[in-house]
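hey can u run this one w/ acetyl coenzyme *A bound, need the structure tokens asap thx
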Amino acid sequence: MTNSIFIATTEPYSGKSLVSLGIMEMLLRRAPRVGIFRPVIKTPPPGERDKNIELLRQHFQLDLDYESTYAFRRRDAVHLISQGRMDELLDRIIEKYKTLEAQCDFVVCIGSDFEGEGAAFEFGYNADIARSLGTPVLIVASGMDQEVDGVVDEVQTGIDAFCERGCQVLGAIVNRANPFELVKIKETLRQRLGERDLFLEVIPATDLLSSPTVREIAEFTGAEVLYGGNQLDRLAHRNLVIAMQVQNFLPRLREDALLIFPGDRSDVLLAALQAHQSRNFPRIAGILLTGGLRPPNIVARLLEGLPGLVPVLLTQEDTYTTATKVGMVRSYITSDNRAKIRLSLDLFEEYVDGAALTNRIVTVPVQGVSPKMFIYNLTRQAQMHKRHIVLPEGEDDRILRAAEALCARDIVDLTILGDPDAIRASIRRLGLTIDLDQIHLIAPRQSPHFLDYAETLVELRKHKGMNLDMAVDQMTDVSYFGTMMVHKGHAHGMVSGAAHTTQHTLRPALQFVKTKPGFSVVSSVFFMLLADRVLVYGDCAVNPNPNAAELAEIAIASADTAQAFGIQPRVAMLSYSSGESGVGADVDRVREATQIARQRRPDLKIEGPIQYDAAVDPDTAAKKMPGSEVAGQATVFIFPDLNTGNNTYKAVQRETGAIAIGPVLQGLRKPVNDLSRGCTVEDIINTVIITAIQSQED
Ligand code: ACO
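ok here u go:
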């Protein structure tokens, strides 16, 4: 079951306050701790808070600190996005969301308002946020002032757009729909979208919710309240501009109208107030005098003596400007307006099938963890139990840049190998802010452990003809020295390979760190961070031609690695054949490997031989391998040999822009990981984090 929902809109004033009120009430019946989170709020005036958050926080008396319920003010978010710093925005949002999530059973996320600066980016960043949080989306669309087809087009476009950006869409609620078209809108939605198994409901517009209070009108127009300040919560359902004489405007008075006319029309003012008190005329909402013309003293004296006056306001602007402004006032549901809240909850209850929505939320399949969330989780995991990692390639600028980021975020302790003076000079040249007290710089030859390490190597490799001279020579190689630090327990793990080949990096580990009990081969996986999920590919880096038993072992090790990093393993043993469709020695090897793996680990879901398309695509899977628990939803992909694996991971990485973290070695007694020589600083950071976590398990 998902533990969150993202209420998103595609335009301003769609009525998401009503929907969020209804959903909160519905969820609070099932779970005591429901939180609210707005990734981006409007930039409120100083001293004010986000209306939507305050409505929910106060009405439901949520025990949540206001600051914990949002991540960005709109202006700051737009600034980051316009500078191309979307990653920073998402990282901060995930961090705040995860902190809130830890205090809650369920979190209702509410998208931005589509009002104000940066509207051009708005849809995109809401979709990216929902996808990164891994939260299913419920779209709220407005039916206001639209024909049936227009409303349905809007809903369909919204759903398609969120789906195209990799979001999981639960359905849509049309709010503020024409009350006479409800059935037609619902039917047309079902006709057009019925096949897509979506939750679709329609709520009618009501005067009460769309009408502003006199207080909202006074605030928006900057009007002064002359009388009736205790009745500002009256709702103004309509506006009436008066220029006529008394006998002509009185018949035009309507219930709950706001009357707008110049302040020097005492005749109209007195007649309107009389009419309000008369049994024969409707009640008005209030009076807005224009032109900065106050009622003359004698009239003011009369008014002051009248009991229960409706609000009388005064603006400095002329009647036309004032009326135009009043027409622009938007109504909000605020926590102090009990009538609007009650009506919203009643409408939600009446028009939204709460049981069906709850069922959707409970049964929606939880999508794989998003790439952003994956990296966030890894970073947190590494920080929780800090480890000490050795980086042998201190002469590489990328290593130093990665070290700066790792130290700044306090993720690991580091030792960097190389000439300490040269490393310090590089740090200065690059302008890095690394606190040199935080990292150890070691020149292998000058290390007090150097001789001990060489002697240990002799001990470990004498059966292979190793003597002290050879060992001393090898120990000057940073790969051997770094690996020996890990073997001796002087570091918890090693990451190298930015400047050395895979063979150079791995050989010392294969020679003397050796495999864990129960493993005969060291193999590797890549975590492939696609736009909307994380997949595991193995082995794309170490074993050129594994036999069936080795392939089975790689599959089991890869499934365990996936599990250890929060990915539910469903293992596809890849081949050019699915099931019984193809023949050949390579297919037979994969078939045999699948059998061995299933026998060794009956608890794992393993399918093979299977082609890549049948492994990932549910439609192809339904045709080629119906009934398989893995086909169409595989998360772990085992390639039959290194040629296929290495080229596939690189092709996917280059063609889709996916981030590939790895190769992450599995099966070694202590963690040593290799980098590609084309690695980026980000790759190094990620690999160090993975290595630190692997060493926690050890
Ligand atoms: N698992 C466990 N031990 C192994 C493995 C393995 N997969 N491979 C070799 N060993 C051990 C051997 O048993 C041997 O141990 P011993 O000396 O105690 O007897 C030791 O490692 C050295 O064995 P060699 O056969 O000499 O292996 P070598 O060091 O030449 O190569 C390597 C090992 C590097 C893993 C090799 O198999 C290889 O080159 N693989 C391909 C690497 C590659 O180029 N990958 C693609 C690029 S990576 C990328 O794109 C990110």
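The chain has 28 helices and 23 strands. anyway lmk if its weird
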